[in-house]
Amino acid sequence: KAVFASTVVALLCVASPIRAQVPAGFDARVEQAMRSRDVPGMAISIVKDGHIVHAKGYGVRRLGSSEPVDADTIFPTGSTGKAVTAAALAILIDDGKLAWDDKVADHLPDFRMYDAWVTREMTVADLLLHRSGLGLGAGDLLFIPRTSRSRADIVRALRHIKPATSFRSGYAYDNILYIVAGELVTQVSGQRWEDFVRTRIFQPLGMTTAVSDENDRFANPNRVQPHARLDARLRGLGPQQVLPERDGLGQVGAPAGGLSWSAKDFARWMQVQLALGALPDGRGRLYSEASARAMWTPQVTVPIHPYPAPIADMTPQFSGYGYGWSVQDYRGVKVVQHGGAVFGVLAFVVLVPERNLGIALQINSEDVEVMRGLGYELLDHYLGFEARDWVGAFATWNQARLAGGLEALKGMKGAARNAASRPSLKLAGYAGDYRDAWYGPITVAEHAGKLRVDFRQTPNMAGTLSHWQYDTFRVDWDDASIEPAYMTFSLDAEGRARRITMKAVSPLADFSYDYHDLLFEASGP
Known about the structure:
The protein is α+β, with helices and mostly antiparallel strands and 525 residues long. The chain contains 15 helices and 20 strands. β4 and β5 form a beta hairpin.
């Protein structure tokens, strides 16, 4: 028995380093995948058995430049940062200043939901679980693509957003309640959310490149620039373009997805996650094991929509959401994961607790097929599944998705539009100030024979209206990265324009462009 045991130990000692390595030729594979979609840059981090086995940059920070992406280059991390806001709350819970079941209104007296009963019952946990009754992405236009509001302003606006379903009846992803969670951290800790995250999370972990304030991101020259394909017909088609980096999420939305960090720091973040809150090298704990397990425990069921071929194998058998993390399975193996998207930059992190494995990928474009494809190729490698071309599979899926979007647009243009119709009023008749209860004010004005609209609390969100049909106009924004929209004016009995409703033009528009939830009323008599 002793001989057998020593042999097993020897074999494990030999096998472990091999299992920790990336696949043979992996760097060449990454570069080939990036070339296939003209991806400017990427960063990939891998943690195995507590050790950082890979933290590396690929490509360039900006298309057309020669500045390389390295392991210290920072990327916006999008909604993968929701787990950081959850961890901040967990630390306050460990400090005895808060509990998951505390009522939000007890700590934020100005907090109101649309329904008074929901206001009284909403807990700290409810802020993180996407089960509030709000619709998908509800209220995102308060801070996306940018805003002049404060977090306190957004907390006050929340009371005007009508629910889509009853409280705790189902799952609908939102960002706005994570902003409320950030404000809660500020009120309970006495520190700005940005400062709390920096001093209580980044510094103890040695995350030296991580920033919670966008001014610090812009001050770091070793940062990526965002890129996207902005074909006039459909986002995702056409050549890569550099996007304006200061027109992204903005600081107010940071608790929902406004952090930035490098491949090295993403690896450090995965280390503490996989160690259930313990800091590396036995330096104490970031948060308790009880809090770690709470964040990874599914609290709400997420509906499963089967993926089509050729990516059907990634369809989970179960799916739920914990505190800032999705919990599901990949081919029968439990994974804890999250995606992130800030316009022009994507991120994806997946943890496999039973294998003590973490994989994170960041990309400074919107080519999801390259990022997710390489991520699943790494998962298959470390889980022992047969190697396959996941990048190619995702590319086929994405091409079909875009083709479907083009067909839908063609159908909309061919069947729905009455191009011979005329507007009911002269252009000046539509001009005026309008206000939506939760968004706030906009101005429609006639200028040089055209109508212009200005979303006054979203800096630089202005556009030109062109007649579409009847009293509906198409808005093309000065910033081409903002999704075009239809604006429909409603007239009163005296023939005056009194209301405006909106919807996105593209059937594939990001859910954060929740134009459909807006109802603008004329402000004047």
